[in-house]
Task: structure prediction
Amino acid sequence: MKTFGEIISEARAAIGMSQKTLAGKVKKEEGEPISPQYLNDVEHDRRNPPSEYIIGQLATILNLDKDVLCMAAGTIPEDMKKIAVTKPEVAKQAIKAFRRKVEG
Result:
């Protein structure tokens, strides 16, 4: 199974984009771009995966699915957290269906 960093690194390389270019396109919530060194650390799994805000941008730029990236990062998207809290039975059924699909 690939790590979050490996997924990002491979997707970036597949489109021929440098770390510097990708880092310049991904903005923190304050509007500043992330640093190439931070991206390098993420790609080499020396840092924890970034926030959902940054994961969403990486997904868009690299043409990856945000939910899959969140799962690889070990997080649950905020909209899914809300469903789990407000509709726990729906969340339980969804997880069971997901496991059946993956295992089947």
